[in-house]
Amino acid sequence: GLDGSVLFAPVTCKEGCAVIRILKDRMREEAGIPTLVIDCDAVDPSVASEEEIKGKLEGFFETLESR
User: Is residue 60 within 8 Å of residue 39, measured between CB atoms?
Assistant: First the structure.
């Protein structure tokens, strides 16, 4: 089975972000799969720094391990 998922949401694409949020909700509601969504921008690293992303990933993985 799937323990969890990580999705990257490009903040410059509103439609893409909306689809990712819907996917996250459906995965949780229908399959119980926790999902981390990381807002990002391929051109503007100030949206999410490398340290922020690492911190979010570490926290998410810790949460998955405690399940």
Answer: no
| Residue among 14, 5, 11, 58 at smallest CA distance from 39 | 11
The number of distinct structural domains making up the chain is: 1
pTM of the model: 0.84
For 56, residues 6+ apart whose C-beta sits below 8 A from its C-beta are: 36, 38
Task: Please list, in sequence order, all residues whose beta carbon lies within 8 angstroms of the beta carbon of residue 20, skipping any fewer than 6 positions away.
Answer: 7, 9, 37
Is the pLDDT score of 29 beyond 90? yes
Residue 13 structural domain: 5-65
